[in-house]
């Protein structure tokens, strides 16, 4: 399960060849929300618009993920945590994933800068 979710996870911050809005809509649960590194809260619609924009105008950035951990929450939910190294900052990430009949969906995501 960790291998699968760690391949789906980067789709929310890196441009992905072939991914479109419908793909992102399937990945983000209807009740999805995010807390960004600034502490700002973002709803699903904002995140979908942002992902779509990144697809239209991808940036070349060397992002590296590491220190992946998966913790079960209940029979349908798991918490995925990891570190993301971007060119100018390091952050810790946490995503709550929900297993549905159609596969896995993100319910919540948070990025916290490491100071």
Automatic annotation (TrEMBL):
Q: Which domain of life is it from?
A: Bacteria
Pfam families noted in UniProt: DUF4440 (PF14534)
Fetch the InterPro entries from UniProt. DUF4440, NTF2-like_dom_sf
User: Domain DUF4440, which positions?
Assistant: 14-106
Q: What is this protein called?
A: DUF4440 domain-containing protein
Q: Which organism is it from?
A: Vitreoscilla filiformis
